[in-house]
Write a structure and sequence with these properties.
- The complex is a heterodimer of chains A (804) and B (169).
- With 804 residues, chain A is an alpha+beta fold.
- Helix content of chain A is 28%, strand content 24%.
- Chain A has a seven-stranded mixed beta sheet with strand order 3-5-1-12-9-10-11. In chain A, strands 7-15-14-13-8 form a five-stranded mixed beta sheet. In chain A, strands 18-26-27-28 form a four-stranded mixed beta sheet, with helices on both faces.
- In chain A, helix 7 runs parallel beside helix 8, helix 11 crosses helix 12 and helix 11 packs parallel to helix 20.
- Classes of the chains: A alpha+beta (804), B alpha+beta (169).
């Protein structure tokens, strides 16, 4: 029997087809981790967390908790130390990172004990019966204070600085010496997170007979963490099976941070000798899941009289919180190849320090390093314009990487793959109506209103080089450790005995619609309709093709994963063409795949249905030409451009670079300090667009996150380290009334480095929008220094300070 | 109102999406946990358990309510509709659900159930909302994926289609 494919054929890529994911999600039939059945003997975990930001644990008494009926086990740091090894840390420093506090708590919300019980209600009852004797210590909240404090978070480190590296690209000293002007900014970038609406979840089992763990978790990658977790659990990778559920309720980077809990709950299952399930609650998530890094930056530019920047000097102090949790300090190095943004600046000096504070450890979050870097760089470009009495647009334009310069090697080693930045800016200025917006500003100001315009140009990196974080090591240390590089994407295309096509991707989708787009890509190659192709998105490390770069981060899906799908489908097509050639008696290169049929080009009568041909490898393998059994094609694709950091620390941190140019007009209420976005224009070049509806979804969604980061959201701590943002009534996420619709514009310059010409698009506005809005606010208020979030509380005093 | 004992389980009977169902719940059990883990209706999601995000919104006796702020025993005797009850039959979507699919008004789908339930009730009571009306109403829901733009578009599109259906009826 064969499946009859649809006859329609088209270029499916580029069309906004409806998503295959949606029917189930819209009818309540999604399969998120907490929706899936568990073994009948499964126990439930609840975690006791520290109320103190910094304290020594003198004693933990779990006696009463263990006596409560229904409680199976209680784990503390001592148990975890006995059964596991610390989580690998990405810097050479004498610090240990555990998934639970060991003898000392270092942030409010840090796990102190885990109760495993018959249900979550009983487990939470038992938490109240655990007696912990804390000796509070002074807490460090401000990273600048932490730099020089005598209070230490990790005593063996002898300071709170876990890494201190300097970099020099070109000849920055000479450029500064010659410069007509120097312009500088000082920034304190706050901590925030994209807070997916589904929280973390883990279900773990341990099999003592095989010393193996089997874990289901809504982890999103990168699967470098698989090695970190297996090592911590003291088993080889093949005894740590990690699976993901079919659906995940959003991630935005954040669900990378579930990995310490995977280790912790796996150990609970081992101790309890039964499966253990844990679903994080919202307070736990806000207080202790993961945060983007905070960063204190001083950035100085050497500037010519016409506004051209000849050199940059960065001093970045990265607040990673209480532990350097893998893959940190990656936030600091993700942009290493892009320190000059969209600009042709040839000289750069950098000092990067990674500092520990009594706050939640940092990790992946949409934008990852981009928001922090560009906030400084683009505030600086505006200050160049203001201090030199130039038009901010002219300052951007005269510094852009010029047309025709691609691929362009940046001063710090990034390879900008493609683009035409000046043309994109010109189109945005024209179609977005910048001149009209300037008139609106003039008339608003004439009417006594506080109105400002902000502009931003950035490059949006995607498809991370797995080696970029080794830039934190010196070249000598890297030589010793061995090179790390690449970004291996995998995809498998298989045909079954009915002749239908199944694709597996290791991209661990978190709601973006990967299954739909992968079906479009496959359908285009094999002459099928997307609905004829089924795509599996869940991951199982014991069964599926995967590598360390697998997962859902660095906007790698369209560029890398769809590219791998395309290549695997092409391999399948090549084999099927050989089989068809034998059956149809024409050369393989004259076989075409159209409308669900495989036939001789130009002779529609000489064709066989795709399904019949595809099934034949199962039913009659002996009739296939040698080596042409077409059953299953797996591709591992890694772009050669992603080399390891070089001897001079030149680092091509990402494969693709989209371009974004944004501008906006904002009005600030003089009385309340409330900020209103009057107009927002965002121009994107993300290469070839595979699904315009999803690209718009990524831009609108990223814009909303960025607006939240710019205006509302902050993981706030009091001076003594208490956490102040533990509910959605304190951590303010924008709603439909706060998020305006941006005007989205596109140009397309395909990437020459990816199989389909696509680049990432999901993170760009998180990089460009916060600083674009801040530039507009600075313009409205006529101020030089401004930090996020731009709440009325922050803006009202700035308004009051202005001269009337 | 029956007398309840804290440590005991009590039988809770509800009409769920048109069918009489019952299960056991301690007085402290949340309605979300009861729906999801006792009755097995996992379409209703839990996003914050403090009534802000709106993911758990369901229809209790004709009005939208946060299931996470409701105890299961409070719902005894109630008529409840959840996202599982919106589609006219398996394999078909309601006008509102279909508008969501066409406008790409969901990505991860986790907040979607609550938004659909709220809008289903809202559009029944407010057939001709303006965009600003819809935005104000949606202010009770958090969505982290879409930026709300396609949700607003889908709601307005569905309202228009539902008005057409009402006219033709």
């Amino acid at each position: 029997m064969t499946v009859k494919p649809a006859v329609q054929t088209a270029n499916w890529c580029g069309q906004s087809i409806e998503r295959f994911e949606d029917a189930a999600l819209l009818t309540g039939r999604g399969r998120y981790i907490d929706d899936l059945g568990v073994r009948p003997d499964t126990l439930h975990a609840a975690i006791l967390r520290s109320p103190h930001p910094h304290a020594t644990i003198r004693r933990i008494d779990t006696t009463d908790a263990l006596k409560l009926p229904g409680v199976a086990a209680v784990l503390t740091g001592a148990d975890v130390v006995k059964l596991s090894a610390p989580l690998t840390v990405g810097v050479r420093a004498p610090v240990q990172c555990w998934p639970i506090a060991v003898d000392r708590v270092r942030y409010a919300g840090e796990p102190v004990a885990v109760v495993v019980a018959v249900d979550r209600y009983v487990a939470e009852d038992a938490l109240e019966l655990i007696d912990v004797d804390y000796e509070p210590l002074q807490a460090l909240v401000d990273p600048m204070q932490s730099l020089s404090s005598n209070v230490l978070l990790h005593d063996a480190l002898k300071s709170n600085v876990a890494s201190d590296r300097t970099f020099r690209y070109g000849d920055p000293e000479a450029a500064f010496a010659k410069a007509a002007h120097r312009v500088s900014v000082e920034i304190k970038y706050p901590r925030n997170s994209c807070t997916p609406i589904e929280t973390y979840g883990v279900v773990a089992e341990y099999e003592p007979g095989e010393d193996s763990y089997d874990v289901l978790a809504n982890f999103m990658g990168p699967f470098t963490m698989h090695a970190v977790m297996a090592r911590s659990l003291k088993v080889p990778g093949n005894r740590f099976r990690l699976r993901t559920p079919p659906d995940s309720g959003g991630s935005f980077g954040v669900k990378q941070g579930v990995f310490p809990y995977i280790v912790l709950i796996a150990l609970c299952a081992r101790v309890a000798a039964r499966p253990v399930k844990w679903i994080e609650d919202r307070l736990e998530h806000l207080a202790a899941s993961v945060s983007a890094t905070g960063r204190a930056t001083r950035l100085e530019a050497a500037v010519e009289a016409d506004g051209r920047v000849t050199a940059l000097r960065y001093d970045q102090v990265e607040d990673v919180g209480a532990h350097i949790r893998a893959p940190e300090p990656a936030t600091l190095y993700r942009m290493q190849g892009n320190l000059t943004g969209a600009y042709a600046i040839r000289n750069v000096a950098v000092r990067n320090r990674v500092v520990l504070t009594n706050k939640t450890p940092s990790g992946l979050n949409r934008g990852f390093g981009g928001p922090q870097l560009y906030y400084a760089l683009e505030r600086l470009m505006q200050r160049v314009a203001v201090e030199l009495y130039l038009d901010p647009l002219d300052v951007i334009r005269c510094n852009l990487v010029p047309s025709g310069a691609f691929p362009y090697r940046t001063a710090s080693g990034g390879l900008l793959d493609s683009g035409d930045y000046p043309a994109a800016v010109a189109k945005a200025v024209d179609e977005g109506g910048l001149a009209e917006l300037c008139k609106r500003r003039d008339s608003a100001r004439a009417a006594g209103k506080l109105y400002g315009i902000g502009l931003t140009a950035v490059v949006e990196p995607s498809v991370s080089n797995m080696g970029y974080v080794t830039a934190v090591l010196t070249p000598q240390e890297r030589r010793k450790a061995g090179p790390k590089n690449g970004a291996q994407a995998t995809a498998t295309v298989a045909v079954d005995p009915s002749g239908s096509v199944t694709v597996h991707i290791a991209s661990v989708p978190q709601g973006q619609g990967h299954r739909t787009v992968a079906a479009q890509v496959t359908a285009d190659v094999l002459g099928l309709a997307p609905k004829d192709v089924r795509v599996v998105g869940e991951m199982d490390t014991s069964r599926d093709a995967w590598s360390i770069a697998s997962g859902n981060y660095s906007s790698r899906f369209a560029a890398a994963v769809c590219g791998a799908v395309h290549l695997a489908a092409m391999q399948m097509k090549g084999k099927l063409a050989r089989n068809a050639a034998a059956q149809l008696n024409v050369p393989a290169d004259e076989i075409e795949f159209v409308g669900g049929k495989v036939g001789a080009r130009g002779n529609p009568d000489n064709a066989i249905p795709f399904g019949r041909l595809a099934a034949a490898s199962h039913w009659a393998p002996g009739t296939m030409p040698d080596g042409a059994q077409a059953l299953r094609e797996t591709v591992f694709w890694s772009p050669p451009q992603l080399e390891a950091p070089g001897e001079l620390d030149e680092t091509n941190s990402s494969l693709c670079h989209g371009f974004i140019f944004d501008f906006c007009g904002v009005e600030i209420d003089r009385i309340t300090g409330a900020l209103r976005i009057d107009k927002y224009v965002t121009m994107h070049d993300c290469g070839t667009v595979l699904h315009p509806g999803m690209v718009a979804g990524q831009i609108n969604g990223g814009f909303a996150h960025a607006l939240g980061a710019a205006v509302y959201e902050e993981f706030a701590y009091s001076d003594d380290g208490a956490f102040l943002s533990g509910t959605f009534a304190d951590y303010l996420v924008p709603t439909a009334t706060e998020v305006p619709e941006p005007l989205i514009l596109h140009v397309e310059t395909p990437s020459p480095f990816t199989p389909l010409g696509a680049k990432g698009v999901g993170e760009g506005n998180c990089m460009s929008t916060p600083v674009c809005i801040a530039n507009a606010v600075a313009d409205a208020l006529g101020i030089a220094s401004i930090n996020l979030p731009l709440t009325p509380k922050r803006l009202a005093p700035l308004i009051a300070e202005r001269k009337p | 109102m029956p007398r309840l004992s804290a440590g005991r389980r009590h039988t809770v009977r509800v009409t769920l999406n048109g069918r009489a169902v019952e299960g056991e719940a301690e007085p402290r059990m949340l309605l979300t946990d009861f729906l999801r883990h006792v009755l097995g209706s996992t379409g209703t999601h839990v996003g914050c358990e403090h009534g802000v995000c709106g993911a758990c919104t369901i229809d209790i006796d004709g009005a939208p309510a946060r299931a996470c702020l409701t105890l299961a025993v409070q719902a005894d005797g109630a008529t409840i509709r959840t996202v599982e009850g919106l589609a006219p039959e398996p394999g078909r979507l309601s006008v509102l659900q279909d508008a969501f699919r066409r406008h790409h008004a969901l990505q991860c789908g986790f907040c979607t159930a609550g938004i659909l339930m709220s809008l289903d009730i809202y559009l029944r009571d407010t057939p001709s909302p303006t965009e600003q009306d819809v935005r104000e109403f949606l202010g009770g829901h958090l969505c982290r994926c879409t930026g709300y733009v396609p949700i607003v578009a889908a709601a307005l599109d569905a309202a228009q289609k539902l008005r057409g259906v009402a006219r033709d009826a």
